[in-house]
Each structure stands twice: as C-alpha cells, then as structure tokens.
Amino acid sequence: MIRLLGTTYEQPVHLGNRDTTISRTIMDWEPAISLHDALARTIHYYQVNISIKREVPMQEQIIAMISEVKDDAQLAISLNGHSSIMEDGGLDSLQLITFLLKVEERFGIEIDFEQFDFDCMESVTVFCNYISELQKTASA
C-alpha cells in the first residue's frame, strides 16, 4: 500500500506528564508503515511537530482572535490586557462583528448585540471580565 504525498497523519501520545500530538507529513512516496517505524527513519523524509497542550489564558485567546480577524500577526505581540480592543486593535465595524461571533463560538456564550455595552471594549481585561460574567450566567 502506498500513502499519498502531502498527507498528514496525527497520533496522540503521552510524554512524561504531558499530552502531545505527533504529526508527520508524507514528504515522498512511501510504503504504508507504522508511525513508530516512520519516526525511526531519517528526518529528511518526515516532519515531526510536537505541540504541548496547555490551557491558554482568556486574554491570550482574545488577543489572538483580534490578530486573526485583522490578519496582522504583529497585533498578537503589541496588544496586552490594557489595550483597547477598538482603538489599539483597530477593528472596523465588520471586523468587530466577526470578532464577536468568534468570541461567542469559542467561549460558548451569546452576546445580546442590541444591549451590548461598548464600554466593555475599553480594554482586553475588561472584555475578558465581561465574557466570564456571561459564562457564569449561561452555566447558572
């Protein structure tokens, strides 16, 4: 059996006290072999990425979402908890709606857009507190 070029295979593993995922991308035509055998072969043919799963703080997630919506990786570096989402993030009206929809989906909340208070956008920290309150209300 031959595996297709460019196909990515993933396998969850436990290393020490960390859960990780090992993924490899087929870089050349090859016979179907076990992941263990594949990892033992030369790195020339296999790309191994180990990512350690951790709980990402809400502020980091919000900043990453702003950066993603703006399609600007530098924002992820320049924004912090004190940054204004509207001013420092530079979201226009369409990007703001996209951002809020992503927040709803990610955190399992529902934002009432008709009663939404834009004062909670004054900083990332204030917005995170707003989301936390919505999560508490939703779970109660």
Please indicate the count of domains: 2
**Mind telling me which CATH architecture of the largest domain this is?**
Orthogonal Bundle
**Low-confidence blocks of residues:** 1-5, 26-30, 42-53
- How much of the sequence is in beta strands? 15-25%
- How many strands in all? 5
Sheet with most strands: strand arrangement: 2-3-5
What's the name of the CATH homologous superfamily of the largest domain? ACP-like
- What is the share of helical residues? 40-55%
Q: On the 0-100 scale, what is the average pLDDT?
A: 76
By helix and strand content, what is the structural category? alpha+beta
Please state the CA-atom Rg, rounded to the nearest Å: 21 Å
CATH topology name of the largest domain, in short, is: Non-ribosomal Peptide Synthetase Peptidyl Carrier Protein, Chain A
At the first level of CATH, what is the class of the largest domain? Answer: Mainly Alpha
The biggest beta sheet reads: 3 strands, antiparallel
Order of helices and strands: EEEEHEHHHH
The N- to C-terminal Cα distance equals: 53 Å
